[in-house]
Amino acid sequence: MKVETEKDWRDIIHRCFRCGYCKFTHDYSDFNCPSYKNFRFETYSTGGRMWLAFGAINGDIEWSDGVANVLYACPTCGNCMENCRFDKFNFMLVDFIEAARAEANKQGYCPENQKFLLERTTNEAYFNPYAEENSDNEDLKKQYNLPDEAEWVYFIGCTSNYRQKNLRDATLRFLKKAGVDFTLIDEHCCTSPLLRTGQVSPVKDFMNYNVQKIKEVGASKVITSCAGCYRTLKNDFAKHEAEHDLEIIHTSELILKLLKEEKLKFNSEFNKTVTYHDPCHLGRHSGLYEEPREVYKKIPGLELKEMKRNRENAWCCGAGGGVKIGYPDWSIEISKERLEEGKETGATIVSSTCPFCRTNLSDANKAFQMGFEVLDLVEIIDQLDYEVTK
Amino acid sequence: MSNKTVLSDLEDIVGKDFASNKKEDLFIYSLDPGASLPRAVDYVAMPKSVDEVQRIVKLANKELIPVVPMGGGLTLSALVVPVKGGIVLDMKRLDKIIEINESSKYALIESGVTTGQLLSYLNEKYPNLQPPIPDAPSAATVAGNVLIHGSGYLSQKYGDHGSMINGLEVVLPSGDICKLGSCSVSDYWFTRGPIPDLIGLFTSSFGTLGIVTKLSVKLFYKPKFRDVVFGLATDFDDIPNILSKVTESGLAEDVLLGMQDKPDWMKGYIFVIVYVTGESQDEIDANTKVLKKIYRKTNARYMKTPPRIREIYMEKPIFAATAADFRKGGGFEYVGAFLPIEKLPDAFKGGAEISKRHGIIPTIGSRLIGQTHSAMAFFSYSFNRADPKDMKNARDALHETNLLALELGGIPWKAELAGQKLILDKMDPNYKKLFKTIRDSLDPNHIMNPGNWEVE
Q: Does the beta carbon of B142 lie under 8 angstroms from any beta carbon of chain A?
């Protein structure tokens, strides 16, 4: 069962019993729902949101800015999906929150900051949520001598292309060195920010545009270094009638494959202690927990130390679900808690596999002077001397 | 005084972020996961200290506003949804585990500590100790459980969880702080007596006499091995004998009974679920052997436990709330009734009839309390939260079950308002008079969870 139609969520949402498991870590040792942990009113648990949304669609409480604000004050990290005990619908909880946000939008209630995401993304000069002039990526193609047609497309994603260029360039260098037959397209936003904030009206067009562009270059595989793009391309396109038969691959998956095939060999060491932060969109939303870890463990000299909350139990970085733009101060407070947990490991580097996590963790690192180096996995590899047998 | 001023006073006490009269916040606190109808709430406040609780109670007294303390909010009988409006005190920010005394085996905690938090803390730091926890989700608070005479793990061996309270710190309706139990004369929160035992005033009185801010609960040694041994009975009338023989063996840490008509393979059986413990697997095996013999001799039979079922019952706590989705409706409520053991057969029969009359699949069980001194029987009714008629049907079934429990000489547990009235109607007039006298004396302005236990 998937939340594919409006009816689906309306017919299921009342089945939440509000038992509260959604708030906790696996062992109940702490609250692992960033929203509940911050606001503490029952309203701000996923159960509270389910009941509030049910009340609103049922007419027991009027839609209002206040109701919308509760629905939006959640990074949709998916801890609730992981800990909710009702296995007939727990995997849809984030879908429910997104559907409730879409309904709030339809009723005319969307927090002001999140509205910018839609305004910017649908602006033909941008097509991205950062209000940066749209890059058709032709300059990058020239710089890296990329073909017009290829088997793979590197879907850069807006955050890497406009905010984390170092990560983008490290990925481009890796793909080039690995001999991957890839190219770039004039990509528009993958629509993750719009989906997460319930601003769904243009998403189908955006998705179909991107699929068409990928098809035009003859590609059958899409690789991305962004956890958000990965989740959206892999899981969400089909839900919005943008069916495709493309293989979607995260960079960590490709790197691991090359290591397992013994095609990628490291000739230098990375003698630092690293702790890995699971991006929610890659982990709980897509089930990729071990692939990045296996890569870190194969890097010579690198010591990987786990934070107390990891994998399915990981604490969110606080950037997702529109929280970074909607609640910037709280967003980095969430990341601060993650960095404090990272400190307990003795690591000097916090690493992730998502440009959005990288951004928020870096912002918190700077704001709270936590003293970490924040790097993506690909950026670590970029610092190494390595060779790839083609 | 205007709403704005009360809110601003509450904000002064607990901080701006932890007091609210926003509709979207009040909405959730006006509802209970059980079948009760919603009731209005005026404010929610989340104190962090006993001082803040004191100041709120004093404010409420000054403004004559009801105050309702709330733990996990999981009684299902809407005990923490105000009857006459007012302030809900969500106590979950009082969440410190203050002390674990390994020698005298108790935990001194603030009243917002959840059962999950304490269980997890002990598992990590004191793995040889276990707390009394209910068959409720881990969001239930320890205080909420013990203060309603909760039952659950360890109840068979050591009694109901209310009896496991060693001491309390209570903010009285006047705003005074009162310590009860050994902590009133000693630094040790290790026992209730030997002094006049007033702790009972604060159990099952549902916040009408004071607000508990700290408590000491007993902890117990946790044996190294634990397993579950299932028996199957087919005749309700065999239940008292089975339970007597099982408990007389001294092997049972906990004993549950269960009966439900769905799935079909369960129909016609009463499941006897006995938890055995030991220091080795050999001991568990030997205990299991003894139980098998007891089952044979009591007209029951041993059932080899399928791994999936074993897993469900070995989890601590059991996910009892699964009943909420039996009918894809998101709701269930049960009458839990303390009953004399000899009345369990009639309770099971009568409960099944009530369920059938209301078109609800019979789901009835029982947890033994204190080695057959009593049993908490539960009669569970699932309903569809999206269907008001179905919710009313569940309320009607609950009411009939309350009547059945009282007819059988039992007492509905954590009863909702209608159930409280039935109990009061049957109660010794002088007991009621005594309670009213105490309440009027402690709470002359009647601000503490008014509407509950109202003696006419």
A: no
Rounded to two decimals, the pTM is 0.95
Strands A349-352 and A273-276: parallel
pLDDT for B404 equals 98
Segment A238-263 mean pLDDT: 94
pLDDT band at A1, cuts 50/70/90? very low
Full set of structural domains in chain A with CATH: 6-110 (no CATH), 122-256 (3.40.50.1860), 264-388 (3.40.50.10700)
Per-residue burial over A157-176, b = 16 or more CB atoms within 10 Å of its CB, e = otherwise? bbbbbbbbebbbbbbbebbe
CATH 3.30.465.10 fits B94-221, yes or no: yes
Identify the pLDDT of residue A314.
98
Q: Is A2's pLDDT higher than 60?
A: no
Q: pLDDT tens digits, residue range A71-96?
A: 999 999 999 999 999 999 999 999 99
Pick from A131, A112, A108: nearest CA to A121: A131
Can you name the residues that pair with B178 across neighbouring β-strands? B170
Nearest-by-Cβ selection for B24 from A17, A27, A61: A61
Q: Output the pLDDT for position B443.
A: 98
Number of other CB atoms surrounding residue A214 within 10 Å = 22
Report how far residue B67's alpha carbon sits from residue B60's, in angstroms, rounded to the nearest whole number: 7
Distance between CA atoms of residues B455 and B438, nearest Å = 12
Asked if the C-beta of B29 comes within 8 angstroms of chain A's C-beta atoms, the answer is: yes
Q: 3-state SS of B113-156?
A: CEHHHHHHHHHHHCCCEECCCECCCCCCEHHHHHCCCCCECCHH
Architecture of domain B3-92: 2-Layer Sandwich (3.30)
pLDDT bin (cut points 50, 70, 90) of residue A239 is confident
Q: Quick check: A40 contacting B, CB < 8 Å? A: yes
CA distance B390 to chain A (A): 13
- What CA–CA distance (Å, rounded) separates B282 from B294? 19
The domains of chain B are located at 3-92, 94-221, 225-415
Residue B297: per-residue pLDDT = 97
The segments of chain B whose pLDDT lies below 50 read none
- Which of A96, A39, A6 lies closest to B28, judged by CA? A39
Nearest CB to A16; choose among B29, B93, B330 = B330
Query: Which residue carries 């089909």 as its tokens?
Result: A238
User: Measured between alpha carbons, how far is A61 from A65 in angstroms, rounded to an integer?
Assistant: 12
- Which residue shows structure tokens 């047998």? A389
Q: Do A27 and B123 touch (CB under 8 A)?
A: yes
% of chain A exceeding 70 in pLDDT = 98
Helix (H, G, I), strand (E, B) or coil at B315: coil
ipTM: 0.95
* Cα(A381)–Cα(A253) distance, integer angstroms: 14
Question: A29 near B121, Cβ under 8 Å?
Answer: yes
Which residues in chain A have Cβ-Cβ distances shorter than 8 Å to B324?
Answer: 15, 17, 19, 86
Residue window 190-229, chain A: list those with CB within 8 Å of chain B: none
pLDDT digits (tens, 9 = 90+) for A124-159: 999 999 999 999 999 999 999 999 999 999 999 999
Record: fold of B225-415: Vanillyl-alcohol Oxidase; Chain A, domain 3 (3.40.462)
A-to-B residue pairs, Cβ atoms closer than 8 angstroms: 105
Using CA atoms, how far apart are residues A233 and B22, in angstroms rounded to an integer?
A: 38
